[in-house]
Design brief:
about 140 residues, alpha+beta, 3-stranded antiparallel sheet, about 20% strand, globular
């Protein structure tokens, strides 16, 4: 993450986690001269909204909620969304962790491997959870 973020601000605490809704660029909703709408990625979603649980990583306990980018759609749509968020500095010096969760269905073996990748420090990416779901007939 060092090419994106050059410095970090303060430490993270689950008790002091940001849960507000913002305009793109992390501007407050009442910023004068800005459109009065926000993107979904700037709206906090709690763990219940995401059907998620708290996650214990190397440096902190994360509550399972956060600001989410849905990685679905065409390759072109994903590239456009990532470019839009990069331009608005969605990941910034206040970002404490990035979680990437995905499931891939393998029809040849009828399994759905799931992975949760966690990036906490600028130089480390670690697989956090890797599971393989099988059918009831296995």
């Amino acid at each position: 993450m060092q090419p994106v973020i050059h410095e970090c601000r303060g430490s993270y605490s689950i008790l002091e986690e940001e849960t507000g809704t913002f305009l793109p660029g992390w501007l407050p909703l009442d910023t004068p001269g800005t459109p009065n709408h926000t993107w979904r990625e700037y709206q906090y979603q709690n763990g219940a909204d995401l059907d998620s649980w708290p996650f214990w990583a190397v440096h902190a306990l994360y509550n399972g909620g956060g600001y989410v980018l849905d990685l679905s759609g065409s390759k072109y749509d994903l590239q456009q969304n990532l470019a839009r968020l990069k331009a608005s500095r969605w990941i910034d010096e206040y970002t404490r962790a990035v979680f990437i969760e995905f499931t891939v269905y393998n029809a040849q073996v009828c399994r759905c491997p799931c992975a949760n990748l966690h990036q906490g420090q600028p130089t480390e990416v670690e697989p956090s959870v890797i599971m393989s779901y099988a059918s009831a007939n296995d």
